[in-house]
Every structure is written in C-alpha cells, then in structure tokens.
Amino acid sequence: METIDAIVSEFDVRSSRFTYVSAALERLLGYPVQKFLGSPRFWFSCIHPDDRERVKVLALASTAGRPREPYDYRVHDADGRVVWLRDHSRVFLGDDGEPSCVRGVSVDVTALKVAEAAGEEARSLLEATLAAERTYERRYRETLENISLIAASIDAVGTVRFANDFLLELTGWSRQEVVGHDWFERFDDDPDVRADYFECMARGEIRKHFESTLRTRSGEIRIVSWSSILEHDETGAVGGIVTIGEDVTERRHAEDELRRHEEHFRSLIENASDVISVLSVDGTSLYESPSVERVLGWTPAELVGSRNFALRHPDDADTVAVGIERVLGGEQAEPIEFRLRHKDGSWRTVEAVVQMRTQDERPVLVTNYRDITERRELEQQLLHSQRLEAVGRLAGGIAHDFNNLLTVIGGYAEVLIAGFDNEDSRLDDAREIASAADRAAALTRQLLAFSSRQVMKLEVLELAPVVADLETLLGRLLGEDVEITTSVEAGCYVEADRGQLEQVLTNLAVNARDAMPAGGCLSISTRHVGHAGRPFVEIAVSDTGTGMDAETLSHLFEPFFTTKDASKGSGLGLATVYGIVAQSGGEVLVDSVLGEGS
User: Fold this and answer.
1) Which of 529, 526, 514 lies closest to 597, judged by CA?
2) 224 pairs with which residues across the strands?
3) Residue 55: alpha-carbon gap to chain centroid
4) CA spacing 20 to 30 A to 335: which of 5, 7, 346, 563?
5) Rounded distance between C-alpha atoms, residue 130 and residue 241, angstroms
6) How many CB atoms lie within 10 A of CB 400?
7) Element (H, E) at 94
8) What is the CB neighbour count within 10 angstroms for residue 288?
C-alpha cells in the first residue's frame, strides 16, 4: 500500500480525522503524512480555492452516506504547483448503521487533464488498486466494486476470476453467470480478439491501452476503453490480467456524429460557389475555401497567413472598414460591395456578408462573398444602352423636326439665290444661308443615324471589296504618318447600306488618326464569328494611339461628347457609328487600354 502511486486514505467520520494516509502523499504532493494525521483541516487548506466549496459539499454527501460518482479537484503541492486528483471513495457503515469511515483512493490525473488521455486515468487507478489488493485484499475489492468503471480479473486462459458490480449492471449478467466463465464467450466472441489475447499471454506482454466492443446480455454492443496490466503468480509467471474499462459508447457515437456533420459541412463549403474566408480582426487569413481559386486565382495555401485586406482596392478601404466596425459593434450584418485584386492583376467586384464568430476563444470574422463582376458590368451596359436609347429617341425627334425646318430654310435660300443678279451684293449672303442649311442638314442626318431613323438602302455586300475600295481613300484621309494594314477573311457577307458602312469605317479611321498625333498603325480586319448562337461577321478597327480611360469609355457613344477641341469635331462621329450598327442589327464592342490604343 505504501509503494503505489496513489494516495490511499481512511477518514473516521465520528472523530473527523484521517486515521490512515499512504506514503504516496509525500511522493505525489511533497507533504509529510503526519501533517494530515495531526491536522484534519490541513488537507482542506491544500485544495484549490475555486474547488473548496464543491469538495466540501461532496465530502458532506459522503459522510452522510449518500452515494456519489468519482470527482476531480485541484490541490496545491508543497511547491505551490497545481495537481489534479480524482477521488474514488466509499462510505462504510458501523454496527449502528450510521456512517463510520470513508475509504478512498486519490489518483493524480494532472497528465490526463493536460493531454485529455482517458487511458492514463484508468491505468493510474488500476495500478493503485492492484497494488492495494496485494496488501489489503478486502479494501482493494471494495474499491473496485464501487468505482464507476468496469473492473475485471481474467486468467491466462480467459476465465473470469473477478467482475465488479459496475460490469454486471452494465451488461445485465449475474455474478454467477460471469465469474468462472469464459470472458470471450460472454462478452466478445471475435476470434481475432481471443487469438490476440492468448498471443499476449504467451509473450508475457499486454496492450496497456486499447478499445474494443463489449456485448451485453440483451445483445447491445458497447464500446469500452481498456487499461490493463499483467498479473503474475508466486513464481513470477504470467497468470492473467487485471483490467479497468470506461464505457465510451455515447462519447464515440457523439464523435462519429460530429465527424459526419463536419464532413458534410466541409463538403458544402468546398463545393460552394461562394468563397468562405475566416479572418482575424487585423485581416490575417486563417482559412480560405477552395472556391477562392476560381474567383481570385489564388490557392487557399497562398492566402492563409497573409493579410487578406491587402487584396482590397484602396478606394474601397473605407467601405470595408465601416462594414467591419458595424459587425464588431454588434450590429446586424449587411451586404457590402468592394473590389479585390485577382492574381492576374485585374479587379473583381464582390458582394460580401461579414459576421463575427469565436474561434479558440478569440473573435474572428467569417466572410461569405461572391463574384458579381459580370453582373455589375451587365448592369452598367444595360444602363448605358438605356441612356443611349433615351438620348437617341430625343435626338431623333429633334433632328426630324429640325430637318423639316432646314428644308424650308434651304428652299427659300435657293429661291433668293435664283432671284439675285451676279452683281447683287445680297447674293453672297443668300449663298451663305444655303451653305449653313446644308451643314445643319448634315448634322441632322448624323443625329438620325444615331437614333437609327435613317432610310437605309440594304444590299448583300462582301466586305473584302468594300475594305479594299476604302483603303485608298483612307490613305489620303489619314496621311503618311499613319500606316494602314488590312486582314480580310474571304466570304464575309453582310446585308447593309454600303454608304453607311463606309461612313462607319471612315468615322472610326478619323477617330484613330486623331488618337495618333505622332503617327501610328491602323488595322482593319474581318472574320466570321459566332455570337448568341448565330453566325455574325466581325469588323475590327484598331489603332496604336493614346487609348481611353474608364470615364471616356462610359460616354463614348453619346451625341456631342468629345475629348477634342470644338473646332476639330462635333462629337457625333461615334454616335453615328453606334446608330448605324444598331440599325443594321449589330453591336459595337470597345476594348481600350490607356496609353496603348483602342
């Protein structure tokens, strides 16, 4: 009893004093045994302040004869260190039927608490109780009978020599049906388990910690975590094992259920189109779902550990900061929209919902965001088209009425010209009126073209000869500083008004020339393309000029919008291009890089 690594004690209820404390007290806690035997309150003073009231209540319950489960509590050893003890004790009654003494075993479970290794607890308890049995068989048996663990002794051929009440209650067998019978026939008929046991007996070794199943009388299968040690007879030969087991069935089922939920949740996250990010409050990435690679081009491994906020567009910093502050302040999470940098350097617009959660007892930001770049671009295109359509209707209506007035003005001007002699000083004024009317009429025709209200003379055209005929004219129009190259695919036919098609190409060429004041290259190409499931022909006109910024692109086709001096253009050239192409059943797509060309 004095040599085992567990504190065995006996407490006399009537005198409220310890009548016995094993020498393990000094080895485990550093206190001399006499301290406890001489001063019953000394032990209470060693208990951790936070555990004293709970231990006091449990101790009173014991001395009152009320049964209870083993409990854990903390004590300070002689060096001031905290040690966890697990108390297994039982109250014994005197001849008068009243509580007489409390006998118990206190096991050091500090390592169990730190490592959460349930097997160490059982092993410590087993070694303590087995050592106690060698010197105090009665106390050992009583302890095993009353602990809330399975306890059994099995000989080398598998016959049960001892089974405690806990095992019998758990399995539903009586003591007569278990003791003296084969363990494996009663509780585990797996031939591999039986063979493993006999092999261990032959080698003189035993698996100290393992899990196996235990079959009850009703056929229910329980999962038990075992801690075992070998028993030796007087000659030193292996005589069997003493084993203590903890029923972990519910725990394992709960762990399996939790694992299934985790796998299901992980599958949902890993296959979701949205990106799930977990960030610390300073923006450091703690987790990125696999979909981040599809949205931003970065693998999760490339982002975890980095500052996720570094990917945020500088202009959106305030938007993100305000959204996070609201969440940290406990407000309801609202979607916020901002831009994140793609691995290729482009910016993706995302819509995110940020929520605060706790992970490892610290606050984290769980961000769920989706890529809405294409949606926003389509919305902008729709708004742009609607704006151009509205402007076109207005311009078309005005141009139509204005054209009627110009017809009258031009007609009267011609009448005046016809009525004046060549020497009449008023003749030049009349001619100036007619010239101004013609120029105004040209503007109205461009407005009508933009509003898709021109009268079109449609014919089937092959683009190759149209481009070839126009190339010579454009060469004279653009000057020697601009090199013209063409790449025309054969067999590109369209139904269009040739004059208007030539006007489209001419307007685009003039715009390209103005974007290349120091000269450059103008390229015109045609090819067959598929678009919206239908065959189309693409005419591409590109230059190596100054290019356009986003603001210019957003107003490009609006009537009278121009970046040139008023003397160099009316701002109707590209508006006319837009109107003619739209009226011809096509669309205009623009790609421009500032400083590189359009």
Assistant:
1) 514
2) 212, 247
3) 45
4) 346
5) 10
6) 14
7) none
8) 24
The dihedral through the CA atoms of 110, 111, 116, 117 has a sign that is: negative
Amino acid at 350: V
Mean pLDDT of the chain, nearest integer: 80
pLDDT at 419 over 90: no
Select from 208, 205, 199, 247 the least CA-distant residue to 227: 208
Q: Answer for the pair 48, 77: CB distance below 8 angstroms, yes or no.
A: no
In 3D space, the residue among 452, 551, 549, 529 whose CA is nearest the CA of residue 497 turns out to be 452
Partners of 93 in beta bridges = 99
Residues in the chain: 598
| Token pair for 25 | 């007290």
Residue type, 536: F
Q: Are 188 and 214 in contact (CB under 8 A)?
A: yes
Amino acid identity of residue 551, one-letter, is: E
The answer to whether the beta carbons of residues 280 and 286 sit under 8 Å apart is yes
Which tens digit of pLDDT belongs to each residue from 365-416? 888 888 888 888 777 766 666 565 655 565 556 666 666 777 778 787 788 8
* Sheet strands side by side (includes 209-215): 160-163, 150-155, 238-247, 221-232, 209-215
CB 34, CB 50: distance < 8 Å: no
For 522-550, give one letter per residue: b (16+ CB within 10 A) or e: bbbbbeeeeeeeeeebebebbbbbbbbee
Q: pLDDT (tens digit, 9 = 90+) per residue, 545-578? A: 888 888 888 777 776 677 776 555 666 677 778 8
Q: For each of the domains in the chain, give its residue range(s) and CATH number, in order of start.
A: 1-117 (3.30.450.20), 149-271 (3.30.450.20), 274-371 (3.30.450.20), 376-450 (1.10.287.130), 459-583 (3.30.565.10)
- Alpha-carbon gap, residue 23 to 25, rounded angstroms: 5
Q: Locate tokens 């902008």: which residue?
A: 380
CA-CA distance, 56 to 529, in Å (whole number)? 88
Closest CA to 575 of 561, 585, 586, 563: 561
